[in-house]
Specification:
3 helices; alpha+beta; globular; single chain
């Protein structure tokens, strides 16, 4: 039976920026933003039925094919963060989602991530369709998120606009 999702982005557990993640600029190194975003993604995907047991039992998983991270505000050691995830779209083999990382107590936005992931048959190491039960869970999340506005930062790209 599909999960009953709320019509709001899915929030992960609060996480804390570790001292060893601080770089020579005195703030969270960019690689560790991705660690925090990935941990949040894993929490949601586990709820969808795509956790470590899924890989062991079905010999399939999901891989990130593309990610776009925007670093909005610095994080420092010891700061608590919370990440929310919104499913933007999915099809028979892919899922497109958006995450926002906020300071967990003060609420300000620190980073965003937009990702496209692929369902992969681990034996063949090829993209494969989601199983019916996972498709049902994704559809339930999609239905819950269908009334949410499309985040302003979705679809961004990198460029230096030339002045005329």
């Amino acid at each position: 039976m599909p999960i009953a999702w709320k019509p709001e982005p899915v929030r992960c557990d609060v996480m804390t920026v570790k001292d060893e993640w601080i770089d020579y600029n005195g703030h969270l190194n960019m690689a560790y933003y991705n660690v925090l975003l990935d941990k949040a993604c894993d929490q949601v995907f586990e709820q969808l039925g795509l956790g470590p047991e899924y890989v062991k039992e079905r010999n399939a998983s999901f891989f990130t094919a593309e990610a776009h991270v925007c670093y909005v505000r610095e994080l420092n050691a010891g700061m608590p963060v919370i990440v929310s995830l919104q499913l933007i779209d999915f099809d028979e083999k892919r899922a497109h989602f958006y995450e926002e990382m906020h300071h967990a107590e003060e609420g300000w936005l620190s980073a965003t991530s937009e990702q496209l992931c692929l369902h992969v048959d681990m034996g063949a190491r090829k993209v494969a369709p989601w199983p019916e039960d996972i498709t049902a869970n994704l559809q339930a999340l999609s239905d819950a998120h269908s009334s949410l506005p499309r985040p302003e930062r979705v679809g961004r790209h990198i460029e230096i606009k030339k002045k005329n």
